[in-house]
Amino acid sequence: MSTVTVSAADVNKLRQQTGAGMMDCKKALMDSNGDFEAAVDYLRKKGQKVAANRADRDAKEGYIIAKTNADQTIGYLVGLSCETDFVAKSEDFTTFVDNLLNLVIENNVKSIDELKALPMDGVTVNDKLFDIITKIGEKIDITALEIIEAPKVVVYIHPGNKIVSMVGMSSVNGGDAGKDVAMQVAAMNPVALDKDDVDATTLEREVEIGKEQARAEGKPEEMLEKIAMGKLNKFYKENTLLNQQYIKEDKMDVRTYLEKVEKGLTVKVFRRIQMG
């Protein structure tokens, strides 16, 4: 019997992250010694519905902007976080993010630290951040800086600038299809481009969860591996971009859609950033 003390605030936090019931969340936290990630896995292994975007729900408020260079071969993205939506929507805040993005493009910046060291209005960007913090009374920070290159880069900015995606297509003729795929990335939040791009830790975790789910259903031990691999195939279809159902035509996956647009057309790289 667990002796861990779990607060109501912790239970509520896990409920918000997962969508599971209050008592299930309390038991998950107690049996996981208060470890939130372990508690999420515990709920999934018990077959509880868990919100896939729990990490997004923990994100701060903020504003994201992105654009490409003139020939659409490079995409640039910058995200600035803050504490309230009121600040995120203010003209001074959004203008500052636009200026940061211009600095990235003009100076070929590759990292957030490099951006913070650049001059702006007679001081460094880092000093400018502190000036704004003092002025508005909220903590703000540059939390995203992404650059991608491809024969054709397409940017999608969801209304409100809370979700922004960039997609690098394999062909200069992939612009129109790229718009559709960029919207797919924004809506479906894939974790990787294809099966081989999913990191080993995630794969091991999904296989173990699949085995535990099958075991809880009373399946024989010798069948657990096969069942888990079947669940892994479902994971690929739901979470890797090229294998996801295409949102505009669910009878085909994204890979098939792109092949119909142009033989050999595919996605080389993508990025998706969300705030709020």
Give structural notes.
- With 276 residues, the chain is α+β, with helices and mostly antiparallel strands.
- The protein has two domains: 1-58, Ubiquitin-associated (UBA) domain (Helicase, Ruva Protein, domain 3, Orthogonal Bundle), CATH 1.10.8; 59-193 and 263-274, Tetrahydropterin Synthase, Chain A (2-Layer Sandwich), CATH 3.30.479.
- The protein is 46% helix and 21% strand.
- The protein has twelve helices and ten strands.
- The radius of gyration is 22 Å and the shape is flat.
Q: What are the secondary-structure elements, in order, as H or E?
A: HHHHEEHHHEEHEEEHHHEEHE
**Gap between N and C termini:** 38 Å
Structural class: alpha+beta
Helix coverage percent of residues?
Answer: 40-55%
The assigned CATH architecture of the largest domain is: 2-Layer Sandwich
* CATH domain class of the largest domain: Alpha Beta
Q: In the CATH scheme, what's the topology name of the largest domain?
A: Tetrahydropterin Synthase, Chain A
CATH superfamily of the largest domain, by name, is Elongation factor Ts, dimerisation domain
Report the total helices: 12
Integer tally of domains: 2
Assign an overall shape. flat
Largest sheet: 3 strands, antiparallel
Query: Which runs of at least 5 residues are low in confidence (pLDDT < 50)?
Result: 51-59
Percent strand equals: 15-25%
**Number of E-state strands:** 10
